[in-house]
Design goal:
Helix 3 packs across helix 9, helix 14 (about 420-430) runs parallel beside helix 15 and helix 16 (about 585-600) packs antiparallel against helix 21. This protein has about 725 residues and is of the alpha+beta class. The two termini are about 40 Å apart. It folds into 3 domains: about 50-235, no CATH class; about 260-350, Roll (Pdz3 Domain), CATH 2.30.42; about 355-500 and about 530-700, 2-enoyl-CoA Hydratase, Chain A, domain 1. About 35% of the residues are buried. The protein is built from 21 helices and 22 strands.
Length: about 725
């Protein structure tokens, strides 16, 4: 590797550090202004394709920030927007002068309007909704205008609340009708027994949901809203440049490493405390066995010290008290599911999020055995690369599958949004002898070619890569490299996501000479673009599968080209590389697969379903008349029931865990349950079935090739 792309290049760090960002420069300003100055400087000096901060930029920030804080147009009035518009062409100047007047004005008015909204929804929900009225609502909010009066705003709320309540009303009424037919109501029946009761309970349910939402909003601090403003500015540069506040940066690191230090439980804020909603397998809570899902933590103490009551506390603040360094002790006062109180002391530990990591299984088809590795992301520990990472984990799974006799390998990158570039280069090296894997170019600089220099090939057998529209970034690099080498066959969507850019994470505190504001968070900055070894960029175009198969996303806009402000597609000169010579009839294998897919009735059903989902997504005018709503629901239900046949599919393939994992099941029933569920889903997966068919073809090609090579030698 010529440079570790996880971090910003030395040149940019030097450039930023040389700028005289000191506290004295900002002694009359607050942290927000310091952040704004730092971030805009880094954007201008370090972004791959920096934008001019001018009037056009100002207009975009203005429109986008209003849309971010009030997307359904149910807070601001038209008069508010008219007042804000005095800043429409001034935001660029404010940014340059570290002036945050526009944010302050919008934030203050938003808080005022949100307080008003609490009274509005309470008032609207006092009165019954008449579902016999022939009225409708448009949910294409971006085409709606802001209303001119509070009376009209209340009417907008009324329609939105009626829409939100309609589904609950139908559910309760339908439940009651079914009970009426049977003539049985048990003690646990919470369904309404009449239309009037159903309507009343539906309003109460909607009110409770909104109470919970506004309770969450009240926990947000001014800094949380300012981060939204900063990210509106940042997002104008490209969709993958992003500012992380200190807590968000910690969450990002956890998502990339797949581990954190704590007790191993996922929590949800409740009025009574922090409710345990999931126990993470292998963590301290799981090992101790004293706590369970549904228990509520109400006090937190540190190793015998006086506990702190967390009832009513922001969830983020409560979690800060609960989490801590490995080996330290936390005392939790807990209200159990049965209502009893208990104090549980736990020793914090490193908790690994198992679902973030690579997992494998072997596939049995008659006498043949193949392997599949699912990789959710290209994870890495930014602090220590030698710790667990995607490349080393996949290498282990490959070796285990080899030892158990796998004759072909499927690498499943569907829904894999990417991650560490370094792990991609190492992972590609598992499948090729040596050579370039990806080309990278910084703004205005020559390209760098990242090579696999290790001549060892860990897996030289048949290889299939599974992708879909959500396979992005690092996934696209690996799929493209295997495709360009003709090393493996890519099966999946017409094209992958189309993210061809590289981001580096820069801690902002590291580039300030002195800082009295504490942790300033970090910015994830687009600094480079990557290119295939054939010279083409994956930006916008993605990777086009060798065998194109439909899926439920086929007609839904969710790729890079559908994001805000994406960088353009381009190409550079190709790298020098030699095609893989392990198989013959590579093109014939693809042709055979295409023929099988064209005649596959399951594939036709999937495509029909994809078209129906697109039509549903495009339907933005919703009737609020119950009779019309029921008719539309019935049509949707008929379609839904018809397409349920998709989940009844049986590939007749058998999936089993590897020996090492089966040994873990004796101690971990949760892991066994997760793997059983995964295997059942794989058995219904027509894409995996076709991947196995392709592996069979490639296996036969490989045997022919070896025989041919042997006869030439003789």
């Amino acid at each position: 590797m010529k440079r570790n792309l996880v971090y910003i290049s030395v040149g940019l760090l030097v450039a930023v550090a040389s700028c005289s960002f000191t506290n004295k420069s900002f002694e009359n300003d607050d942290k927000d202004k310091l952040l704004l100055d730092l971030i805009t400087y880094v954007l201008e000096k370090g972004h791959y394709e920096p934008k001019l901060i001018n009037d056009d930029f100002s207009v975009s920030v203005f429109e986008d920030f209003i849309d971010v804080v009030d997307p359904t147009k149910r807070y601001f009035l038209a008069s508010d927007i008219a007042e804000f518009e005095q800043y429409k062409f001034q935001i660029d100047d404010q940014i340059k002068n570290t002036d945050i007047t526009f944010f302050n004005v919008v934030y203050a008015r938003l808080m005022e309007r949100m307080d008003d909204a609490k009274g509005v929804y309470k008032e609207v929900l006092k009165s019954p909704f008449d579902y016999n009225d022939d009225e409708s609502i448009s949910i294409k909010y971006d085409e709606e205008s802001f209303v001119s009066s509070k009376k009209k705003l209340q009417e907008r709320w009324r329609k939105q609340l009626k829409y939100a309540t309609l589904g609950t009303f139908d559910s309760k009424l339908t439940h009651a009708e079914k009970k009426d037919e049977s003539g049985v109501f048990d003690d646990h029946d919470h369904g309404a027994h009449s239309p009037e009761e159903a309507e009343k309970e539906a309003r109460e349910s909607t009110e409770a949901t909104l109470d919970e939402f506004f309770d969450f909003v009240s926990d947000l601090e001014r800094k949380d809203w300012f981060e939204q403003y900063i990210n509106t500015i940042v997002d104008e540069f490209d969709p993958h440049t992003f500012y992380f506040g200190p807590e968000d940066k910690e969450r990002f690191d956890v998502s990339m490493s797949g581990k954190f230090e704590g007790i191993g439980a996922r929590l949800q804020k409740k009025p009574e405390g922090a409710k345990i909603v999931e126990v993470i397998s292998g963590g301290p809570v799981w090992r101790d066995g004293s706590l369970e899902v549904g228990d509520e933590i109400i006090k937190v103490g540190q190793n015998g010290e006086e506990p702190i009551n967390i009832v009513g506390m922001r969830l983020d603040d409560a979690i800060k008290l609960i989490k801590g360094a490995q080996g330290t002790i936390v005392d939790l006062t807990v209200k159990k599911v049965d209502g009893s109180l208990d104090v549980v002391s736990l020793t914090r530990d490193v908790v690994e999020l198992e679902e973030s990591y690579a997992k494998s299984a072997y596939i049995l088809k008659g006498e043949e055995k193949f392997g599949i590795i699912n990789l959710p992301k290209f994870y890495v520990d930014f602090e220590d690369y030698s710790n667990r990472n995607a490349a080393s984990d996949v290498a282990k799974e490959v070796e285990r599958l080899k030892q158990e006799g796998a004759e072909g390998l499927i690498l499943d990158l569907r829904d894999n949004g990417g991650g560490s570039l370094k792990t991609v280069v190492e992972m590609a090296g598992l499948f090729i002898k040596d050579g370039p894997v990806v080309q990278v170019r910084s703004g205005g600089e020559k390209k760098d070619v990242y090579d696999d220099k290790d001549e060892r090939v860990q897996w030289d057998g048949p290889l299939v890569i599974l992708v879909n529209e959500l396979s992005a970034s690092a996934s696209e690099i690996l799929a493209a490299a295997m495709q360009d080498y003709k090393r493996g066959i890519v099966i999946g969507s017409k094209q992958t996501f189309g993210k061809g850019t590289v981001q580096n994470v820069i801690p902002l505190s590291n580039i300030v000479r002195s800082n009295e504001h504490g942790d300033l968070g970090a910015i994830k900055l687009t600094t480079q673009k990557f290119y295939r070894i054939n010279g083409g960029s994956t930006q916008l175009e993605g990777v086009k599968s060798d065998v194109v198969v439909p899926d439920k996303y086929s007609y839904i806009d969710l790729g890079e080209k559908d994001q805000s402000n994406p960088l353009k597609w381009d190409k550079i000169s190709p790298a020098e590389y030699t095609l893989w010579d392990g198989y013959i009839d590579y093109d014939k294998t693809i042709e055979n697969s295409k023929k099988r897919m064209e005649g596959n009735p399951q594939m036709k059903l999937i495509e029909e379903n994809a078209k129906w989902l697109k039509a549903e997504q495009d339907e933005t005018d919703i009737s609020l008349n119950y009779k019309t709503y029921k008719e539309e629901q019935e049509k949707d239900r008929e379609h839904s029931d018809f397409y349920k046949k998709l989940s009844d599919y049986d590939s007749k393939l058998t999936f089993e865990s590897l020996k090492y994992e089966q040994e873990l099941f004796t101690q971990d029933s949760v892991l066994r349950e997760k793997r059983d569920r995964w295997h059942k889903n794989l058995a219904k997966d027509v894409y995996v079935e076709e991947a196995v068919n392709v592996l069979e073809d490639l296996k036969m090609n490989n045997i022919k090739n070896m025989k041919l090579a042997s006869s030439v030698k003789n």
